[in-house]
Amino acid sequence: MAPADAVSRGTPRSADLQVRGFQASPLLIPGQVLGRPTLFADSIAVAGTALLLGVAAMSYAHQDPATASAPRVIEVVVKRFAFEPARIEVTEGERVRLMVKSADGPHGIAIKKFKVSQALKRGDQPVSIEFTAAAAGEFPILCSEYCGEGHDDMKGMLVVTVKER
Ligand code: CUA
Predict the structure, then answer these.
(1) Ligand 1, CB cutoff 6 Å, lining residues
(2) CATH 2.60.40.420 given to domain 69-161
């Protein structure tokens, strides 16, 4: 297979691009093929390198502990004047994604310990709130927007259980 084939043969699969791209440039330099194809081969080599780097970056991201496991998704409905469920249990260190929706008017949800504070509009789509339950304990869930007479009665509890070691 002549290296120039790699260039002229339409769009090879990315694996081919990497292999041929890297081989092509040194082979072409002393050969009859001048200028343009060499540049093409070089650019393919560059593309191959970029591709490799991209793949490396992606797999690195996958190994990042923060993104290694999918978050625990918990649906929460907020209404006058309660959270449902009122008690949410997770495990220490767990990544948590709350999908929070108001069933009536405006409310808010706040968990001070984990810097959660989110206003919720009437009839909204669920709002996604992510945090890491980095500490064990019991943490109040409060409504962060005044929503009427029962506003102060809106209390939930986030229970973070100690991780077994
Ligand atoms: Cu609900 Cu304030």
Answers:
(1) 107, 143, 145-147, 151, 154
(2) yes
